[in-house]
Amino acid sequence: QVQLVQSGAEVKKPGASVKVSCKASGYNFIKYAMHWVRQAPGQRLEWMGWINAGNGDTRYSQKFQGRVTITRDTSATTAYMDLSGLNSEDTAVYYCVRNEWGTCYFDYWAQGTLITVSS
Amino acid sequence: QSALTQPASMSGSPGQSITISCTGTRSDVGAWNYVSWYQQHAGKVPKLIIYDVSKRPSGVSDRFSGSKSGNTASLTISGLQAGDEADYYCNSYARDDKYVFGTGTKVTVL
User: Fold this and answer.
1) How far apart are CA B26 and CA B5, in angstroms?
2) Shortest CA distance to B107 belongs to which of B36, B5, B14, B3?
3) Across all residues in chain A, what is the average pLDDT?
4) What is the pLDDT of residues A41-86, one digit of tens each?
5) Which residues have C-beta within 8 Å of that of residue B108, sequence separation ≥ 6?
6) Can you tell me the distance from the alpha carbon of A112 to that of A3, in angstroms, rounded to the nearest whole number?
7) What is the DSSP letter of A59?
8) Given A47, A95, A107, which is nearest B48 (Cβ)?
9) CA nearest neighbour of A38 among A101, A86, A85, A91
């Protein structure tokens, strides 16, 4: 069965960076894209970007361009989201989300990782 | 890319139908038939309920239906049930291989 398992919650200081991992299993990793979506407390879902797990191509939301880097390790079937220059507004639950190549919807969501930015 | 516009809240009595709108632009909702909808119960992970404007994934109740006209997509929930009380988000593919979510709608069953 498809499983996406993310790394655990973290607390970061303003200005720091965070790297969240997303371990995929139960499907052919390289035939899918992995997106990252975040949700601040009580707020809406916000799309951040995605990576083509097959060839490594990436696309980022203009809002996060320059601060976010999405990578993957095909041998470990794991995707990563690195966000730099953290501030309090980055406090949110971050989700990795699967998207089959050639489709435009998100069929599996991981459990989410809470990142808290606080001095 | 600005968020798609949804009503902040909607409510209905059990058995009634409600329709949630999702308004975008010619660059996203109006450009492609790639609108999807997600249901998120309080404290839970979002779940796909509609994709490609009007298709339902296996296992999703046929009480959920989707449509689109111009730059506005809609999600209709028929025969409202207590378990439908949740937040609902639309999402659209946009140009340059990017995506955008809606502002979200909180549905309350009276």
Assistant:
1) 14
2) B14
3) 97
4) 999 999 999 999 999 999 999 999 999 999 999 999 999 999 999 9
5) B9, B10, B11, B12, B85
6) 12
7) E
8) A107
9) A91
Residue B103 has its nearest CB partner, among A37, A44, A112, at A44
List the Cα angle A22/A49/A29 in 5-degree steps: 40
Can you tell me the mean pLDDT for B50-79? 97
- CB pair distance less than 8 Å for A104 and B93: yes
Residue B54 CB neighbour total at 10 angstroms = 16
pLDDT score of B97 more than 80: yes
SS3 per residue for chain B: CCCEECCCEEEECCCCCEEEEEECCCCCCCCCCCEEEEEECCCCCCEEEEECCCECCCCCCCCEEEEEECCEEEEEECCCCHHHCEEEEEEEEECCCEEEEECCEEEEEC
d(CA B80, CA B92): 25
C-alpha of A68 from chain center: 10
Mutate to test the interface with B, among A47, A55, A59, A113 (most CBs of B within 10 A): A47
Give the pLDDT score at A101. Answer: 85
| pLDDT band with cut points at 50, 70 and 90 for residue B96 | confident
**Partners of B83 in the β-ladder:** none
Q: In this predicted structure, what is the pLDDT of residue B51?
A: 98
Q: Is B101 part of the contact surface with chain A (CB cutoff 8 Å)? A: yes
**pLDDT mean over A24-28:** 97
> What are A102's two structure tokens?
């050639």
Whether residue B30 has pLDDT greater than 90 = yes
- Tell me how far apart the alpha carbons of residues A10 and A25 are, in angstroms, rounded to a whole number: 23
